[in-house]
Automatic annotation (TrEMBL):
<comment type="similarity">
    <text>Belongs to the peptidase A1 family.</text>
</comment>
<protein>
    <submittedName>
        <fullName>Acid protease</fullName>
    </submittedName>
</protein>
<dbReference type="GO" id="GO:0006508">
    <property type="term" value="P:proteolysis"/>
</dbReference>
<dbReference type="InterPro" id="IPR033121">
    <property type="entry name" value="PEPTIDASE_A1"/>
</dbReference>
<feature type="active site">
    <location>
        <position position="273"/>
    </location>
</feature>
<keyword id="KW-0732">Signal</keyword>
<dbReference type="InterPro" id="IPR034164">
    <property type="entry name" value="Pepsin-like_dom"/>
</dbReference>
<feature type="active site">
    <location>
        <position position="87"/>
    </location>
</feature>
<dbReference type="InterPro" id="IPR021109">
    <property type="entry name" value="Peptidase_aspartic_dom_sf"/>
</dbReference>
<feature type="domain" description="Peptidase A1">
    <location>
        <begin position="69"/>
        <end position="394"/>
    </location>
</feature>
<feature type="signal peptide">
    <location>
        <begin position="1"/>
        <end position="20"/>
    </location>
</feature>
<keyword id="KW-0645">Protease</keyword>
<keyword id="KW-0378">Hydrolase</keyword>
<dbReference type="InterPro" id="IPR001461">
    <property type="entry name" value="Aspartic_peptidase_A1"/>
</dbReference>
<dbReference type="Pfam" id="PF00026">
    <property type="entry name" value="Asp"/>
</dbReference>
<dbReference type="GO" id="GO:0004190">
    <property type="term" value="F:aspartic-type endopeptidase activity"/>
</dbReference>
Length: 405
């Protein structure tokens, strides 16, 4: 594990109900411009996700630059604990990119090689089954995991906890390239640890004022949701039928507006992705948004939208309509906190936006036209229901300012 990754979280599990378990998440922290490159990494990831086909032999890997939230996972007996990225757009679970995989008496080779690759990062290794400890009461006796031998662009953490649909593992093994790998969520249900194949995710916003919560940085709940972390009821959105987005946790937006400007005029599909930082829009949609903010321009150094301070007071909410409900990003949600500028490689006195373009990709009829990344999910609790083939959203229980100058 790189020395600049500071993790203060301990493995602590509490039950939100008799059949759910919530685990604290930790934010990765670095020094200097440790987030520089994240916007371009997220765009490269989105470009790969759009191109993936049913018979593709690669799936998205988590790569250098953007990952911000990790969970502690024990592998082996006695377990070695790894800080794994929570990733809803991939389904392989692997370790060894930081802390090496430690084999114990429960580690069993499957005689399969594993390879996950795309333009932003890759890993190659061997597939094992091993005991996996997600929480003291959530121990999977034989979970398939990858042991990384070599990797590129994956050096910020120890690996990834794949929470995407199981079919995303197709083609990642060899010689058995036509089989899929049971995910952690599959096995939790199979072995009776949880009743429902549902998980909930809470990402604490940068301006979080809940300093006493055990979920200071965030929480991952297995088997359901943690209602103490959001307000009201979840709005459930069916997984889209539009390819290739339907292969992921994809949803349809029926309208997106910025003030009195229509950014997305009709139903279009995109994904909910915990491992993309920004809210990404197809270029033609983003152009409408950018042009509506006086003086806004893309900053080539950070890859972020630079917004003149004089324009902030004139900014308006960015509203996404999902399942007939409006989910709004107010002005503060559209801006990175100024004290993060150095981390993004920016200039301290400037302001940068959390919404960005794909670069070179306009909307078409059958496609992936937006990504609701961390900056959306820091405002809205999310739930992923494989049983019901749907994604749920509710406002987090934090009180946010409506303006940040």
């Amino acid at each position: 594990m790189k020395s600049f990754v500071a993790l203060s979280v301990i493995l602590l599990a509490t039950s939100a109900s008799s059949s759910t378990t919530s685990i604290p998440l930790a934010k990765l922290q670095g020094t200097g411009a440790y987030l520089k490159g994240s916007p371009d990494a997220g765009r490269a990831r989105a470009a790969f996700l759009r191109r993936r086909t049913d018979n593709a032999n690669t799936v998205p890997a988590t790569y250098k630059g953007y990952p911000s939230y990790v969970t502690k996972v024990g592998i082996g007996n006695p377990p070695t604990y790894y800080n794994l990225i929570v990733d809803t757009a991939s389904a392989n679970t692997f370790c060894g990119t930081g802390t090496p995989y430690v084999r114990t008496s429960t580690s069993a080779p499957t005689n399969e090689n594993v390879h996950v690759n795309h333009e932003g990062g890759s890993f190659t290794g061997q597939e094992y089954t091993d005991q996996v400890t997600l929480a003291p009461n959530l121990v999977i006796a034989k979970q398939s995991i990858g042991d990384v031998n070599s990797s590129a662009g994956l050096d910020l953490t120890d690996g990834t906890l794949g929470l995407g649909p199981r079919d995303l593992t197709l083609g990642t093994l060899s010689p058995d390239s036509y089989v899929t790998i049971p995910t952690v969520m599959n096995n939790l249900v199979l072995h009776g640890h949880i009743q429902n194949e549902i998980f909930g995710i809470y990402f604490a916003p940068p301006s979080s004022n809940d300093d006493t919560s055990e979920y200071l940085d965030g929480a991952l709940t297995y088997g359901g949701t943690n209602s103490s972390l959001y307000k009201g009821n979840l709005t459930w959105v069916p997984v889209t039928k539009t390819l290739p987005t339907s292969r992921y946790w994809g949803v349809d937006v029926t309208l997106c507006t910025y003030g009195n400007h229509t950014v997305i005029p009709t139903k279009t599909a995109g994904i909910v992705d915990t491992s993309t930082t920004l809210v990404l829009l197809a270029d033609n949609f983003f152009s409408i948004y950018k042009n509506a903010i006086q003086g806004a321009s893309m900053d080539p150094n950070t890859g972020l939208l630079e917004i003149p301070r004089s324009s902030i007071k004139h900014m308006r909410p960015l509203n996404f309509t999902l399942a007939d409900r409006v989910f709004s990003l107010d002005v503060a949600a559209q801006l990175f906190p100024a004290d993060q500028n150095t981390a993004w490689g920016g200039v301290p006195e400037k302001r940068y936006g959390t919404v960005g373009p794909f670069f070179g990709k306009n909307s078409v009829v059958e496609d992936l036209d937006f990504v609701l990344g961390m900056k959306f999910l820091e405002r809205y609790y999310s739930a992923f229901d494989a049983d019901g083939n749907r994604v749920g959203f509710a406002q987090t229980n934090h009180t946010f300012s409506t303006y940040e100058g």
